[in-house]
User: Fold this.
Amino acid sequence: MANEAMIDAVRADELAARRQVDPKLLAQFRAEVAERMKPSRKLALTVWSLDEVKRDGEEWHNIYGLRIIWSLAVEDDGYEWIHVSVSHAHDYQLPIVRLPSYWEQQQVKARVFGDRRWAY
Assistant:
């Protein structure tokens, strides 16, 4: 019984080690996102501000209340995945919260993923 518990603990440690994102890859992706967040004519002249740097990603917002949270992680399949959440900041003065438009989602895809990556 003790051996099984030890084997399970070793497997859990191995799985955790495999799920760690390479720090160099994370730093490289952060730099890519920061570069794409700069105002450009190609991607609408919107100014983005970095709100928070998280352990595995970042949180950004723009002057129109659009928020982006992205993270990079190694998932169960062993591949690195980028997860992006997009929303409008909730305005407590308004009773309605609207979803990001298709155009806004395209802008976020271009800013976070760039032209070389697919987004699902």
User: Anything to note?
Assistant: The longest helix spans residues 2-18. The CA atoms of residues 8 and 109 lie 40 Å apart. The first strand starts at residue 48 and ends at 54.
